[in-house]
Design brief:
heterodimer, A: mainly alpha, globular, B: mainly beta, Jelly Rolls, 7-stranded antiparallel beta sheet, 5-stranded antiparallel beta sheet, 0% helix
Chain lengths: 85, 180
């Protein structure tokens, strides 16, 4: 994915703001400009590493899943680590 | 003798649902009256464009002495970020159409501020920094883009400027016209 647009960075930051800043009242010393940089860094990291990660997936999972299914595996694993699953 | 405040006789949120709305700010303090109802603006991550509060202020048939001033204060549970607010207004008489009035720009840089860390030149009307959460932050504009006239209505578009807003919390605004 190319560099995210401002609107796309907002879409990613919005639920983070709802959960962390609004509900938990944490990180209240961050503004959206600060969040934009962190969102972009995270997306860049995924972009840089997705090929290695995908290549390293074990068979038969790798051969029997399309790109969307592989992404969902990544997301569900991350959500579990974040306590959201 | 100075006078006011004259509060909005009408306040209507124009635009996308969820981005501008009536809101009750809940302070985190231990006081017994922590709620305050005002004009809500979504946090910057949920704003997708400029949004407007459409306001009306009824002026008395005899104006107080002093300088007509638009006073706006804000509350938010946050310690960083900027909110850019641009008042545009005109005085409209009876037998005139307020929806056809050409509104005059006071710009997002107010004539004075109390509290917060907003600054002129970057279009940040209000700025929040450490320990500004749940505190009143005030901005004042001398109403000189048009002329305030006794017995007329001030028709105001209170525009939230998305591009210059990055505060990551809902903000609640409280507008009035005063004479100082």
């Amino acid at each position: 994915m190319a560099v995210l647009s401002r609107a796309e960075r907002k879409q990613i930051a919005s639920p983070w703001v709802q959960k962390i800043i609004k509900e938990l009242r944490q990180s209240q010393n961050l503004n959206f400009t600060d969040l934009e940089a962190a969102v972009q860094y995270t997306d860049d990291w995924i972009d840089d590493n997705q090929s290695d990660w995908s290549t390293g997936l074990p068979e038969p999972f790798k051969a029997n899943t399309d790109a969307d299914a592989k992404i969902l595996l990544f997301i569900y694993t991350a959500m579990k680590r974040g306590g959201l699953l | 003798m100075a006078g006011g405040p004259f509060l909005p006789s009408s306040a209507y949120p124009v635009g996308t649902s969820g981005e501008i709305f009536p809101n009750t700010h809940l302070g985190a303090g231990a006081g017994a009256a922590v709620e305050e109802e005002g004009l809500g603006v979504a946090n910057a991550t949920d704003l997708t464009g400029d949004r407007v509060w459409s306001l009306r202020f009824q002026m008395p048939t005899t104006l107080p002495t002093g300088t007509a001033t638009f006073r706006l204060f804000a509350l938010a549970a946050i310690e960083a970020g900027d909110l850019s607010v641009q008042p545009l207004w005109a005085s409209v008489a009876m037998d005139e159409d307020p929806s056809s009035a050409t509104l005059n720009d006071e710009t997002p840089d107010p004539d004075s501020r109390t509290g917060g860390d907003g600054s002129d030149g970057d279009n940040s009307t209000f700025g929040w920094a450490t320990a500004d959460d749940d505190k009143y932050i005030e901005a004042r504009w001398t109403l000189n883009a048009d002329t305030v006239i006794a017995g007329e209505l001030i028709v105001m578009e209170l525009r939230i400027v998305d591009a210059d807003t990055d505060v990551a919390a809902v903000t609640t605004l409280f507008p009035s016209v005063i004479f100082v």
